[in-house]
């Protein structure tokens, strides 16, 4: 399928999920994340979900990271330049929703991209080769290209893999893993 078709399909599937489904599936994903070989790393980048888009609730993964004493990094996006600025999440971090309802840090201690060792990546769909379809702005692809080659990229999805995303572009960055409530895909 093409990314445009996948975006439509998965937005529709997500919209049919109840609040209880969202919580249950997000918790199942967090439990699967525990099995990943990532826990010796220190710097973890995570997205804060757009609740209006029914994204995976990353609160459960945040609790895991916090409990394991990891450095947690969240970002602020500039949609004009497609740049992300990364900040350390602390008890003092103020979060505010931007024009797309994305919860973002207002400011804080900036962290260079080169420090980030693990990235949890939002997506709408992914395929069996590790390609993903996001919202189509290219912000995450640009960010992931700036990361070190050793940075571990983990997609989070309520749904299982598609066979193949047909319109993969040169700038698309593949995932290393994708975690669903039922499975951990390794690419």
TrEMBL record:
Which is an annotated GO molecular function term of this record?
A: 5-formyltetrahydrofolate cyclo-ligase activity
Key words, A-Z = ATP-binding, Ligase, Magnesium, Metal-binding, Nucleotide-binding
Q: Write down the EC number.
A: 6.3.3.2
Provide one Gene Ontology biological process annotation. tetrahydrofolate interconversion
List the transmembrane segments: none
The reaction(s) annotated as catalysed by this protein in its Swiss-Prot or TrEMBL entry are: (6S)-5-formyl-5,6,7,8-tetrahydrofolate + ATP = (6R)-5,10-methenyltetrahydrofolate + ADP + phosphate
Specify one Pfam family: 5-FTHF_cyc-lig
Q: Which domain of life is it from?
A: Bacteria
Binding residue positions for ATP: 3-7, 132-140
Requisite cofactors: Mg(2+)
Which NCBIfam families did the record assign?
Answer: MTHFS_bact (TIGR02727)
Say which family it is in.
Belongs to the 5-formyltetrahydrofolate cyclo-ligase family.
Q: What is this protein called?
A: 5-formyltetrahydrofolate cyclo-ligase
């Amino acid at each position: 399928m093409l990314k445009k078709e996948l975006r439509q399909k998965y937005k529709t599937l997500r919209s049919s999920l109840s609040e209880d489904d969202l919580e249950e599936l997000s918790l199942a994903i967090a439990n699967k994340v525990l099995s990943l070989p990532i826990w010796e790393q220190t710097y973890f980048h995570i997205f804060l979900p757009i609740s209006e888009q029914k994204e995976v609730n990353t609160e459960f993964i945040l609790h895991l990271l916090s409990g394991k004493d990891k450095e947690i990094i969240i970002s602020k996006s500039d949609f004009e330049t497609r740049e992300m600025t990364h900040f350390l999440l602390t008890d003092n971090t103020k979060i505010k929703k931007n024009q797309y309802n994305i919860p973002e840090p207002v400011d804080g201690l900036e962290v260079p991209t080169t420090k980030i060792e693990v990235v949890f990546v939002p997506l709408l769909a992914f395929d069996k080769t590790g390609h993903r379809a996001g919202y189509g702005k290219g912000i995450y692809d640009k960010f992931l290209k700036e990361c070190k080659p050793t940075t571990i990229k983990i997609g989070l999805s309520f749904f299982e893999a598609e066979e193949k995303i047909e319109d993969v572009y040169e700038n698309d960055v593949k995932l290393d893993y994708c975690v669903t409530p039922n499975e951990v895909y390794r690419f």
